[in-house]
Amino acid sequence: GLTIIAEFQPTSLILSALQDLPSGLWPCRSKMEKHLQVISVMQWVISFLALGVACTALLIYIFCTDCWLIAAIYIAWLIFDWNTPKQGGRRSSWVRNWTVWTYFRDYFPIRLIKTHDLLPSRNYIFGYHPHGIFCFGGFCNFGTEATGFSKKFPGIKPSLATLAGNFRFPILRDYLMSGGICPVNRNSIDYLLSQNGTGNAVIIVVGGAAESLHCTPGLNSVTLKNRKGFVRLALRKGADLVPVYSFGENDAYKQVIFDEGTVWRSLQKKLQKILGFAPCLFFGSSWGIVPFSNPITTIVGEPITVPKIEDASEETVNLYHAMYIKSLQCLFDKYKTRFGLKESDVLHIH
Questions:
Q1: What is the C-alpha R_g of the chain?
Q2: Is residue 23 part of a domain?
Q3: pLDDT for residue 263 is more than 90
Q4: CA-to-CA distance for 152 and 137, rounded, in angstroms?
């Protein structure tokens, strides 16, 4: 797995070397660091948006040249390795600790706040809110070690769940797996919570694609009222539920939000059903795609102890779902004034 993603290491080495240069060689050190931060963020954004498609096109091209054997061998290996993302993946502490992620973290900056200890003898499902456009806080905190997750929660192994379709693309799948990222489907999560021992934390962005269509700066809104699948899963596996809220996640981009009933809104929803994600019309600070450097602070709340019930009744599911909503609401209300919001700001749950 590491050989496949080795092409990303030069970036990390360059950033590390530049960081170690004496300050006298950097007349504009702060400006240089800002440029490195932008490069770090754009590396991830472009990789997420285009790496899979670009590598697929490259593989097809190589297959049509004299080097077709290389492409054929890789495709054979890809078929052999197809189920790995659903079986715990192939995380790499080396990749998770790349220097590039510290620059990524410092661009916004992104912080991870721990409120309670988590027991390595238990498994957990983190509900992450809100989705935002690119879920920067979720990726930085749980897909890398830039904010020190493993030091803050010793014995807990995080697995950020994302669209299963991303793992069908060559190279991109390995890049994602190296960060401990897994497909958000039943097989993958079942494996992590039942066949991978204890101390596992699966992070699910509960609002998903639908929530991203509503994100805009200053709006504190989550799609949760009818999202109960993650609660059923927690009950079936006896995994404790942990509410997580990222203040500032919605402030990374501005988005053009189309009114319900308009042609553009209908088109977004249709594409969402076909593609699995919502195509948003968003823009950032420069070139349209660079996000605004607004702080993102992720608060990991108190775990809700969940019993193991193989076939939970609807009443039981509703009970724990209500407990989760109340816990998330309390988490938001407790910390909102510390991170730029007013006492009068409320969390809208749809």
A1: 21
A2: no
A3: no
A4: 16
Count of beta carbons in the 10 Å neighbourhood of residue 275: 12
DSSP states of 179-221: TT-EESSHHHHHHHHHSS-S-EEEEEETTHHHHHTT--TT--E
The H or E element spanning position 99 is none
Distance (Å, rounded) from C-alpha 332 to C-alpha 315? 26
205 pLDDT more than 60: yes
- SS3 call for 157: strand
Query: What pLDDT digit, counting tens, does each position of 170-189 carry?
Result: 999 999 999 999 999 999 99
Rounded to an integer, the average pLDDT of 35-55 is: 94
Domain span at 239 = 32-349
Question: Has residue 135 been placed in a domain?
Answer: yes
In a domain, 288, yes or no: yes
Say what the pTM is.
0.89
Q: Are 332 and 347 in contact (CB under 8 A)?
A: yes
pLDDT of residue 62: 95
For residue 78, give the DSSP letter.
H
DSSP state of 47: I
**Rounded Cα distance, 207 and 278, in Å:** 12
Q: Give the burial class of 34: count Cβ atoms within 10 A of its Cβ; 0-12 exposed, 13-18 middle, 19 or more buried.
A: middle
Number of domains in the chain: 1
4, part of any domain: no
Peptide bond just before 217 cis, omega within 30 deg: no
Contact 153, 203 (CB under 8 A): no
Q: Structure tokens of 306?
A: 């969940």
Question: DSSP assignment, residue 86?
Answer: G
CA distance readout (Å), 32 to 24, 91, 248: 13, 31, 25
pLDDT at 3 over 50: no
Three-state DSSP class for residue 109: coil
3-state secondary structure of 127: strand
At 129 the pLDDT is 97
**Cβ distance 14 to 180 under 8 Å?**
no
Angle of helix 29-46 relative to helix 9-20, nearest 10 degrees, comes to 170
75, pLDDT greater than 50? yes
Looking at residue 280, its pLDDT comes to: 79
Half-sphere exposure of 269 (CA within 13 A, CB side): 11
Question: pLDDT grade, residue 2 (50/70/90)?
Answer: very low
